[in-house]
Amino acid sequence: MSPPTSKPFAVVGPFDWWVSATVDLMRTWAQFSRVGTGSDTARFAATPAPAAFPIDKAEVDPPTSGDRLLHATMGRLTSGVSPASLALAYSDWALHLAASPGKWQQLSEKAVRKAVRLATHAAEVSADPDCPLCIEPLPQDDRFRAEAWQCWPFRLIYQGFLLNQQWWHSATTGIGGVSAHHEHVVSFVARQLLDAMSPVNFIATNPEVLEVTLREGGQNLVRGAMNLISDWERAAGGKEPPGAEAFRPGETVAVTPGQVVWRNRLIELIQYTPTTDQTWAEPILIVPAWIMKYYILDLSPENSLVKYLVGRGHTVFMISWHNPTAEDRDLGMDDYLRLGVLDALKAIGAILPGHKVNALGYCLGGTLLSIAAAYLAREGREAFNSVTLLAAQTDFTEAGELTLFIDESQLDYLEDIMWDQGYLDTRHMAGAFQLLRSNDLIWSRVVKDYLMGQRAFRIGFDLMAWNADATRMPYRMHSEYLRRLFLKNDLFEGRYQVDGRPVVLSDIRAPIFTVSTETDHVAPWRSVYKINLVTETDVTFLLTSGGHNAGIISPPGQKRRHFRVSHRPVGSPYMDPDTWYRSHPGTQGSWWPVWADWLESQSAGRNVPPPLGSVKKGYPTLGPAPGLYVLER
Fold first, then answer.
1. Residues tagged active-site
2. Which InterPro entries match (predicted)?
3. Low-confidence residues of the chain, pLDDT below 70?
4. Class of 258-396+495-631 per CATH?
5. Which residue intervals of 437-587 are DSSP H helices?
6. Partner of 400 at 20 to 30 A CA spacing, among 60, 314, 336, 523?
7. Which residues lie closer than 8 Å to 593 by C-beta, 6 or more apart?
8. Where exactly are the structural domains of the chain?
């Protein structure tokens, strides 16, 4: 296999989604119109149905194909947001609000009180510029921290904005009869609109921008315009962001020595070179998420979990996922199970026969590992010595703010986009994550880059580089994942099927070590904690500081790290998450040594390090780590 063409990192800038939508729209309709104006069948020949998923006559029916093409086009223009989903949410909210005169009265009274508060504050400020604020920004809101915002009239402008923001929160929440999902959607959209209209985002109402503009004679705005043009060209041409060249897999990140010992159409299996005279008997298999590249767990050497494990005497295997293209549209969840986890286990069993595996799954990889463990337990195959789940959910009813984008209408639009192009583009997923933190990831960059004329975004460290190195998601797999797990919660509720029969998490007998993070907005820790509800095995649960990514990358020696941990033996009663949190005090330091000690306590001892691969068993070394798939763009 020849090395894949190296393309730049996929980074989403403030307006990249619009550039991407425009380019995709032109591509789609250019293909569509090129077919001609003959029969209906001919007109829709440019967007054939997928070969295997879903198998339905409607897939080749021209009117239905036309509907899907229209949805795909609209979805690109709206960044994957379904207008019907928004309309349903707002209809639910508006109809119930209209039938709630008491709520109307409360909102009217609040509006009057806030107007009086602002007017009173205006009078106080005129007499005493240092008087207390009438409303404090939220702790996480640092838009108005600069001293310039305390000067008249900007103080009144932002205080009025915060009061208005508070009123709209009251107006979009707490209305009887509105479904929880619709309430969250309406409140979220209102917050996005308010964030867009913040006085920070406009030259005339931002004192920091005005100060720089006057001092530089408007040169900041000229630089900002050049930055905007540069970002537009980069987004349209797929150019890499500043600083990305310093973090190439195999050069400065993903540099732990090893060999690729197996490759199929979906994975490469990397076996890392031992660095100790003896290694623990049980190898470790790491199953990373396929939404990003595997080297989140093998960043620069000082931040590499792989290097840390190898240094402690473990034989480590890593799955590196192929970055799908349109040709992989029919890869499904079963393919990720069989070509991914099960093929990797088969290879490890040939290279190190007679040893169970300590398996680790991160994020989506942890969910897939849970499915694999339940499936193998159902089949009576004791492949795992232990199972470790990092920021991985098995229940999706409280899956954080990402559930805002998950309902039937949203999935229909998303599936039609994927049906048209064969995969979910990296920008769609990145755009969704940006919206969840729009102040930090969109508007602060707009102000810095385009109004201040500075460069707010530059890749400056390994985790940032990894975060920019996204992958695509094949149509069938992503549709199955969102519908079967997110929307229907089949795994947690015992309906998820492999080989036509359900797999049940309570069948898992290997001890489980689960790690969650305190500020995770992708896999909230209370959601991850639910592993305790559906397992009947020994469970160790650890909650660490940090978020979904930074909390997992916690090498010993880092400052301001803490965690709390508990052990629940088989047969112990369930403890709810809030009681658990109060009952387990925090400990300073990294969680890595605690987990490594736990792994080693499960081991049968140490042996001579195994060879890399096994030519006799059909697993020769195919090339040095990090392999080829991690370089695919």
1. 363
2. AB_hydrolase_fold (IPR029058), PHA/PHB_synthase (IPR051321), PhaC_N (IPR010941), PHBC_N (IPR022211)
3. 1-61, 238-243, 456-460
4. alpha beta
5. 438, 444-446, 462-468, 475-480, 525-528, 531-534, 577-583
6. 336
7. 556
8. 86-197, 258-396+495-631
